[in-house]
Design brief:
Blueprint lengths: L1 E2 L17 H30 L1 H13 L3 H14 L3 H17 L4 H22 L3 H6 L5 E5 L4 H6 L5 E6 L7 H9 L3 E2 L5 H4 L6 E4 L4 E4 L3 H23 L14 E6 L5 H7 L4 E5 L13 H15 L3 E5 L27 H6 L1 H14 L4 E6 L5 H21 L8 E6 L2 H5 L1 H4 L5 E4 L1 H9 L17 H16 L3 E4 L10 H7 L3 E4 L4 H8 L4 H11 L5 H15 L1 H7 L1
Parallel strand pairs: 1-2, 2-3, 3-4, 7-8, 7-14, 8-9, 9-10, 10-11, 11-12, 12-13, 13-14
Antiparallel strand pairs: 5-6
Helix pairs in contact: 1-2, 1-5, 2-5, 3-4, 4-5, 10-24, 12-14, 14-15, 20-22, 22-23, 23-24
The structure holds phosphoenolpyruvate and magnesium ion (MG).
Length: 567
């Protein structure tokens, strides 16, 4: 194990002689140039490996290094107060970062983390030290333990040498965790004071599935995990073999099993997973981590690439779900007092019609190149759906006039993620072709639980009877109108939840590509009539734990391999 020191080091002020000022300024410029060089290298590597969207964050970092206000103040401190470059840069960067960190706006607060990340790099250059140096000079595989790993450091980790990492800070949805997941590096984050308790050279066992780090594991533990690993390898082989097999239940019911993506760069993972196309393209990620909103041509190119890449399988393109914790600076004006109940998703699209039109035109044009379906996020009433549909019709008329091609028939779907939408699904079904259950938000909004808040995390229960009733209501309403229902929330990627969802009448599942093979494995061992009996029974249950236990029990009975490895 390698324990990296905390990056919040103590920086003392040193006074330099007035005649040393030019040299100190040159030292600063050299450090900035070297940092820029490193960042460009990281940007290119990340862009090649993960795509432009993920690499966008490093473009933002590069801009920090060119900020005239920040650099002007640093120069002034060196010139006028004769402070050394390390102290001057650290003081000014920290002042700017603290101001950003205090902002109400989530986007600005994220920029504070960027500034600290980048500031640390410049200081490392100036001081000639770097945790990254240690990481890049690794020769043997090890588990890395750090106070926090910045997204830029994480993106550069070599998965063959860094076989896992654990950090004091961070959450499941941080950029760092997302990068680790994409690289396939097991990680356990948010462990509090793990760097204080462990030392480099200690032995540790990191279990990314269980979210645990076992220091100095006993022979017995190592043996148990060794067996687990063997089962893992055997299961992974079975899962790979399923790639080209159909997603069909044991009693012959076909299910559409699709993948959730955030950018065209995810296409290889979709293919690798054996998914039938894309069930949720979260287009807002094309708008984040950058300084300019993508225009119609850029969006069209991205949607077309995904559409052609999946054809003839369908791609469900969700219109912008900005807001909540995803807001580009160009759109956000003031901090929202309660972003998840505020100006978000379709509410933004229907007020910023310029943005919405551009996106709709780009999606419509992409529809000429394969099978595209359109999905609106956060619909809470019929009027929103009608207003959005009216705009689609206007865009179609415009394109027709311009002689631009688009698909004659384009299915339109509504995300059911606000309880009111489930309750009026009967009305909504008249104006759309399908529903996609966003169980992540549906759970949060129904139970009034912020899923990012650790204090109430125990109340976040997708199997709460209220959620199950809302799903059942949605399916019944759809059935009455001859519509179909899918699930694209995290629940669809949880093998144990599949009997429950299928039993309730869901016919499409869309999950992160990594979960698709496991879901298919389970599906192919499940009988639909058993799942239906389960759903009928759980509709009588009065608490989340009972419902969860019932669906786990059936899932475990039909696909035990999946659970002995996961537990
Ligand atoms: C959901 O809410 O379940 C969903 C799929 O949307 P997102 O996770 O993008 O909010
Ligand atoms: Mg949602």
């Amino acid at each position: 194990m390698l324990v990296l020191g905390r990056t919040d080091r103590k920086i003392e002020r040193t006074t330099i002689a007035p005649e040393a000022v030019p040299d100190e300024l040159k030292r600063l410029n050299d450090a900035l140039a070297a940092t820029r060089q490193t960042l460009k290298g990281i940007h290119n590597r990340v862009a090649a490996a993960m795509g432009q969207t993920e690499a966008g964050i490093f473009e933002a970092h590069l801009l920090v290094l060119e900020d005239a206000n920040l650099l002007g103040e640093v120069h002034k401190l060196i010139r006028v107060q004769n402070t050394d470059a390390v102290y001057a840069f650290h003081t000014v960067a920290e002042k700017f970062a603290s101001a950003l960190a205090a902002a109400e706006d989530d986007y600005l607060r994220e920029r504070a983390a960027d500034l600290r990340d980048i500031g640390g790099r410049v200081i490392d250059q100036l001081m000639g030290v770097s945790g990254e140096d240690v990481l890049s000079s690794l020769t043997e595989p090890c588990v890395v333990v750090a106070h926090d790993l910045s997204p830029s450091t994480t993106a550069q980790l070599n998965p063959r040498l860094v076989v896992g990492f654990a950090t004091d800070q961070g959450g499941r949805t941080s950029h760092t965790a997302i990068m680790a997941r994409k690289l396939g590096i097991p990680a356990v984050v948010g462990l509090g004071d793990i760097t204080q308790r462990l030392h480099s050279g200690d032995y540790a066992l990191l279990d990314g599935h269980g979210g645990i780090l076992i220091s100095a594991p006993t022979d017995q533990t190592l043996f148990a995990y060794g067996q687990l690993q063997e089962r893992h390898v055997a299961l992974a082989k079975k899962l790979r073999e399923l790639r080209d097999q159909p997603a069909v239940t044991l009693d012959g019911q076909g299910v559409i099993l699709a993948a959730n993506i955030e950018s065209p760069a995810d296409l290889p993972a979709v293919r690798e997973s054996g998914a039938n196309g894309v069930g949720l393209f979260r287009t807002e990620f094309l708008f984040l981590n950058r300084h300019q909103i993508p225009d119609e041509e850029e969006q069209y190119a991205a949607y077309r690439q995904v559409t052609e890449g999946c054809a003839p399988d369908p791609v469900i393109i969700r219109t912008l779900d900005l807001g909540g914790d995803k807001m580009p600076a160009e759109i956000s004006l003031n901090g929202e007092p309660n972003p998840f109940l505020g100006w978000r998703a379709i509410r933004i699209s229907l007020t910023r019609r310029d943005l919405f039109r551009t996106q709709l035109r780009a999606i419509l044009r992409a529809s000429a190149h394969g099978t595209v379906k359109l999905l609106y996020p956060m619909i809470s009433c019929v009027e929103e759906l009608q207003a959005a549909n009216a705009l689609v019709e206007e865009c179609k008329a415009e394109l027709r006039q311009e002689g631009q091609a688009f698909a004659a028939k384009l299915e339109i779907g509504v995300m059911i993620e606000v309880p009111s939408a489930a309750l009026v699904a009967d009305h909504l079904a008249r104006y759309c072709d399908f529903f996609s259950l966003g169980t992540n938000d549906l759970t949060g909004y129904t139970l009034a639980v912020d899923r990012l808040n650790e204090r109430v995390a125990h109340l976040y229960a997708p199997t709460h009877p209220a959620i199950i009733k809302l799903i059942a209501l949605t399916v019944e309403a759809a059935r009455r109108h001859g519509r179909w229902v899918g699930v694209c929330g995290e629940m669809a990627g949880e093998p144990a939840m599949i009997p429950l969802l299928l039993g309730l009448g869901v016919t499409e599942l869309s999950a992160t590509p990594r979960s698709v093979p496991q879901v298919k494995f389970l599906l192919r061992r499940l009988k639909l009539n058993e799942a239906r009996a389960l759903a009928t029974a759980v509709l009588e249950c009065e608490n989340a734990a009972e419902i969860s236990a019932a669906t786990h029990q059936l899932a475990r009975a039909v696909a035990p391999d999946l659970f002995t490895v996961r537990d």
